[in-house]
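Lab notebook, page 48
Experiment: co-folding of the full assembly
Goal: obtain a model of how the components sit together before planning crosslinking
Operator: M.T.
Materials (sequences as entered):
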Amino acid sequence: MVQPIEPSIAILAVWVVLYIYSLAGSIDFGASFWAMVHANQETQAGRIANRFLSPTWEVTNTILVLLVVMTIGFFPKAAYMLGNVLIVPVSIILLLITVRSAFMVFAFSVERYRKVLQIVSGLTALFIPALLISALPVTQGGFVQMIQGQAALYFGKWLTSPSIYLYILFGLSSELFLSSLFLADYARESDDDSAYEVYQRYAVLFGPITLLVAVLALYTLEPEAAWLLDRLLRYKMWYVWSIIAFLIGYVSLWWKTKDQKVGRPRVAMVFVVIQYALATFAYGAAHLPYIVYPYLTVDQAFTQINTFYSLLKVFTIGLAILLPGFVIHWRLFMKDKRYLEGEKT
Amino acid sequence: MDTVTLARAFFGTSLAFHIIFATLGIGLSAMVLVTEWIHYWKKDRDYGIMAKRWTKSMAILLGVAIPSGTIVAVQLALLWPGFMRIVGQVIAVPFQIEIFAFFLEALALSIYVYGAGRLRPLYRVIAVFLVTLGATASAVLITSANTWMNTPAGFKIKPDGTIYDVDPWKAFFNPSFYEAAYHVVVSALMTGAFVIASVAAYRLLKAGSQAERSIHSKALILSLVVSVSMSFLTALSGHESAQGLHRNTPEKLAAAEGLFQTQRYAPLAIGGYVDYDKKQIIGGIEVPYLLSFLAGDRFDTVVKGLEEYPRWTWPPAYSHTLFNIMVAIGFLLLGLAAMALLVWWWRKRNGQTGWPKWLLYLLLLAGPLSILGIEFGWIFSCSGRQPWTIYHIQTTTEAATKAQYLGALFVAFVLVYLFLGALVCLVLTHYFKRNPIALEFQSNKTLGDDTHGTAH
Ligand code: HDD
Ligand code: HEM
Ligand code: HEM
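Observation: model returned without errors.
Model output:
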C-alpha cells in the first residue's frame, strides 16, 4: 500500500509556521527587551526598536495564533494531549504575553509612566520565548506520564531537569541574538550608525553563546530522549551546513560596504535565517514520526481527510489574498525612509 | 468546585473579558470608518478629529483585545481538550479563516495608524474599511464555530466517538449560522455606537469651548443615528434567532420562556424567575398567545415545553432571566436612542440648540448597558446549551480537561483581568486628559494631512 502523503504535508506546514514564528517571535520579544534597555540613553537604539515594534507586534502575535489553530486543525489529537500536559506552563506564557502587549501599548500612550511600563513589558517579553521553547523537550520523552489513559506532565521533573533549563537558556540567547542582529540591520536601513554599532556589538556577543548553548542542550537530553539524539546524528551534515551558514553570517558583520561602513547586517541576517532553517528542519525531521514520544505519532494525530483538504484550500487562498498586504506593510515600515528616519520624532 | 465547574467558570470569565474589547474593536472601527468617510466627503475637519481620537482609543483597547483573544484561543484547547478533538476534525475551517481576518485587520490597522500621514485620504478610508472588514469577519467566523456547537452539522459520529463523513462547509453553514452571525454583527455595531454616544454625552455634560461642544454634538448625533438603526436591526435579528431556537433547540427556548408544557397558543412570560421544582414562573407577567406567534408567526404554533425532555438535559433555570435582560436592554436602548433623536429634532425645529441635561444623563447609561446586553446574550447562548457542549452529541463533562491546578490558574487570570481592566480605564482617561481636543485644533491645521499615530 502507498503511504498517504497528507499527514506529511500537514506536519511540514505546521513546522514551517513554527519556524517562522520562532524567528519573528524572537525578534519581536527581543526588540521589547532592547527598547527597555535603551529607554533613556542618548543613542537612537531604543527608538529604533520601538519604531519597529509599533506596527508589527500584532502581526507577529497573529502568527502565534495561526500556529495554535493549525495544530488543532491538522492534528486535533496532538492538541488534546498537549492541552492536557502543558496547561500550567502555557497559561503562564499567556499571562506574560498579555501583560507584555498591554503594557507596551500603554507605554505608547502614557508619557508620565512610560519608563515603568516599558520595564515591565521588556522584562516579561524577555522570558516569553524562553518559556515557549521549554515545551519542546516535553515532546521528546521522559516528561509525560499516562494515568488511566490520560496524559499528564511530571511537574516536578519539568521544574528541575537541567535539560529544560538549557533549552530555556537557548531560547534566551537565540532571542537576544536574532533580535539584535535584526535591529542592527534595521538601524543600517535607517542610516543610523550609532544604533547600528550598539546592536552589532550585541549580535557579536550572543552569536557564539547561542551556538554553544545549542550544542550543550542536545548533549544533556534526558535519557528517555536518547532516541532523538541517535536520529539527530543521521542529519549531521545539515548541522555542519548550519554552522557554516552561521560562520559566514557572523564574519559578514565585519565586511566593508561600498561606502566604507563596517559590517553587512543584511548578509548576516540572511545567513542566520538559513542557519536556523537548516537546524530547525533537521531537528524536525529527526523528531518524526513522533509528535509526543512515545505516545503519539503524526499519523495517529492526523485530522479527517476532508477537513485537511478544506483547511489546505483555505490556507492557500488566504495567503494568496493577503500577500499584497504583507508586501505593502513591508514597504511602509521596513523600506520607506520617511518612516525609518522618524518623521514624527 | 470540581474541575468541570471550574473550567466552565474560568472559560466563561475569559470570554466575558475578551468580548468587551472584541465588540468595541468591531463597533469603534465601524464608527471610525463612517467618520473617515464623512471627513473625506464633506471635508469637515471636526470629523477628522473624531476619527483620530476614536482611533487612539481603539489602539489602546487593542492592546488588551489581542492578548485576551490569544488567551481564549489557547484556552479552548487547554480547558476543553475533549471538545477540541472533535472541533479539529470537523469545524476547524472557521478558525483557520479567522486567522486571515486577524492578519487583514492587523496589517490594515498598522497601515492606518502608523502610515496615515503617508497615505492619500481615499487610501485612508480604504485602510479603515479593511480594519472593519477584518474585525467583523472574525466575529462572523467565531460565531460560526459557536452556532455549530448549538446546532451541530456536517459529520457523523459512531458510539465509540469515531468521526466520519465530514463535510466541513456544511458544518460551517450550520442551521443557526446566518441569524446568529447577523445578530452578533449588528449588536456589535450598536454597542460601538452607544459607547460613543455615552462618551459624547459625558463630554457635553462638562463645560467646554463652543468649538469642542460642536464636535461632541456632531459625534452624538452621528452615533445616535447609527445606534437607532442598529438597535432596530438587533431586535429584528434577535427575533429571527428566537425563531431559530424554536426550530433547532426547543429546550433552550422553553427554558428562556419558562414553558413546561408543550402547547399551542403558548403565552409569553416577561420577568419573574423560573422555579424548576414547582414547575412554574414566579412573579412574571404572561402575555397570552404571544410566544406561539413570535415562535412561528401563527397563534396556533406548537411550542415545546421542558417536560418533553429528560430532567438532566434542562438548561439552567436562570436562562429565562438572562434572556429577559438582553431583550429588555434591546428595547430600552432602541427607545432611548429614538427618543433622543426626536428631542433633538424637536428642539432644533423650535430654534433651540444644545441637549437637555436629563437626556444626557440617560445617555450616559447607554454604552455600559449595551455591553451588558452582549454579555447576557452570550452567557445565555453558552449556558443555555448546558449540559451540552455540542448539542446532543458531547456533554460538558466529556469536553472538559482533567488537569489539576485549575483553581490557582483561575485566580491568577481573574486578578490579571481585573488589573488590566482598571489600567485600561486609567490609561484612557490619562491620555485624553493630557491631549484635550483643544490641542487638536492647533495641530490639525492642514486638513487630512496629519498622522494618526502618536506612538513616539
Ligand atoms: C447589545 C446586545 C444585544 C441586544 C440588545 C439583543 N441581543 Fe440577542 N444576543 C446578543 C446580543 C444582543 C449576542 C451577544 O450577540 C448573542 C449571543 C450569542 C449570539 O449569537 O448573539 C445574542 C443571542 C440571542 C439569542 C440566542 C441565540 C442562540 O443561543 O442560538 C436570541 C434568541 C436572541 N439573542 C434574541 C434577542 C432578542 C429577541 C432581542 C430583542 C431586542 C435581543 N436578542 C437583543
Ligand atoms: C471562543 C471564542 C473566541 C476565540 C477563540 C477568539 C480568539 C481571538 C484571538 C486569538 C484574537 C486575537 C487575534 C490577533 O492575534 O490579532 C481575537 C481578537 C478578536 N476577537 Fe476573539 N475570540 C473569541 C470570541 C470572540 C467573539 C465572540 C467575538 C465577536 C463577537 C470576537 C471578536 C474578536 C475581534 C473583533 C477581535 C479583534 C480585536 C480587535 O482587533 O479589535 N471574538 N479573538
Ligand atoms: C464571547 C462571548 C462569550 C461568552 C461571554 C461566553 C460565555 C460562556 C460561559 C459563561 C460558559 C460556561 C457555560 C456554563 O457552564 O454555564 C461558556 C462555555 C463555553 N463556551 Fe462560550 N461564551 C462566549 C462565546 C463563545 C464562542 C464564540 C465559542 C465558540 C467557539 C464558545 C465556546 C464555549 C465552549 C467550548 C464552552 C465550554 C463548554 C460548555 O460549557 O458548553 N463560547 N461560554
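Interpretation: The first helix of chain A runs from residue 6 to 37.
Next step: discuss with group before ordering constructs.
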